[in-house]
Automatic annotation (TrEMBL):
<feature type="domain" description="Amidohydrolase-related">
    <location>
        <begin position="19"/>
        <end position="260"/>
    </location>
</feature>
<dbReference type="Pfam" id="PF04909">
    <property type="entry name" value="Amidohydro_2"/>
</dbReference>
<dbReference type="GO" id="GO:0016787">
    <property type="term" value="F:hydrolase activity"/>
</dbReference>
<dbReference type="GO" id="GO:0016831">
    <property type="term" value="F:carboxy-lyase activity"/>
</dbReference>
<dbReference type="GO" id="GO:0019748">
    <property type="term" value="P:secondary metabolic process"/>
</dbReference>
<dbReference type="GO" id="GO:0005737">
    <property type="term" value="C:cytoplasm"/>
</dbReference>
<protein>
    <recommendedName>
        <fullName>Amidohydrolase-related domain-containing protein</fullName>
    </recommendedName>
</protein>
<keyword id="KW-0456">Lyase</keyword>
<dbReference type="InterPro" id="IPR006680">
    <property type="entry name" value="Amidohydro-rel"/>
</dbReference>
<dbReference type="InterPro" id="IPR032466">
    <property type="entry name" value="Metal_Hydrolase"/>
</dbReference>
<dbReference type="InterPro" id="IPR032465">
    <property type="entry name" value="ACMSD"/>
</dbReference>
Length: 268
């Protein structure tokens, strides 16, 4: 059964391994998110045919990285086949200590930065331990990106990619706005270590097709921002985008699966 047929027949698809590269868990302080815990998330993932999600807790990205990272690890330990964690690094809350505490923990497959929430520029020196770790290990870094932001616009994302060519950087939301998509594509064309992650309120199927056409399916990854944003909406944009089947499979999970293999590479 094709993925489209599964959707129209309201059955979970099983033909493609879908990996959500941008998810969260837990309550958010600014507004109510119903059923934001991992058990409810798994139920929705099962309904949609999503095999795995890479997540950070809302607590970690917003208020308390230390306690939030512990929550993320607990979620992953409870369902390691369904979740991998992002280690959130808040530049104001002991970046070196958090990397030392969790950097070797297999619960975590990536690092999450949110300069807009942390009121600190992506190019700032407090993030230096993150880029050193990423270059040394191959650990991918997902950073929030938003056109026009004083903290993580596309010029800053590209600047860190230039400074740290050995790092794999995922531009979360791919710039977030139509102009941001243009700038993100241009930056990714210039910087081979820069990937585009496609979740957000303004992204459309044609935008995703253009990203794949201009930078390649191996550098575009599906993310949802679930449960912050409805998983079904973000998934539908990719499924019905018109991408070739092979490219769509890469975007939906193949590329992110490859990026998460860095730990097994270190162990060898």
């Amino acid at each position: 059964m094709s993925i489209e047929t599964a959707v129209w027949s309201r059955r979970p698809q099983t033909g493609v391994r879908i990996v959500d590269a941008h998810a969260h868990a837990g309550p958010y302080s600014l507004f109510f998110i119903p059923e934001a815990g991992p058990e409810a998330m798994v139920r929705v993932m099962d309904r949609c045919g999503v095999a795995h999600a890479v997540l950070s807790s809302h607590l970690a990205i917003q208020l308390d990285a230390t306690e939030g990272n512990a929550q993320t690890a607990e979620i992953v330990r409870g369902a390691p086949d369904r979740f991998t964690g992002y280690l959130t690094v808040n530049p104001w809350q002991d970046p070196v200590g958090e990397l030392g505490r969790w950097g070797d923990d297999p619960c975590f497959g990536g690092i999450k930065l949110h300069p807009d929430l942390h009121d600190y520029p992506l190019t700032g020196r407090r993030y230096a331990p993150v880029w050193e770790f990423a270059q040394r290990t191959g650990c991918p870094v997902l950073t929030h990106s938003y056109d026009g932001s004083p903290y993580n616009d596309l010029a800053q994302v590209e600047e860190v990619a230039v400074r740290h060519p050995g790092a794999t950087i995922l531009a979360g939301h791919a710039g977030a706005t139509p102009l941001g998509f243009d700038l993100a594509i241009e930056a990714a064309q210039r910087q081979p270590g820069l990937m585009l992650e496609v979740c957000g309120s303004f992204n459309t199927g044609p935008d995703i097709v253009r990203m794949v056409t201009e930078v390649g399916a191996g550098r575009v990854v599906y993310g949802s921002d679930f449960p912050f944003i409805d998983l079904r909406m973000s998934l539908g944009r990719v499924i019905f985008s018109g991408l070739a089947e092979e490219d769509r499979a890469a975007v939906l999970g193949g590329t992110m699966t490859r990026l998460l293999q860095w730990r097994s590479g270190l162990e060898r």
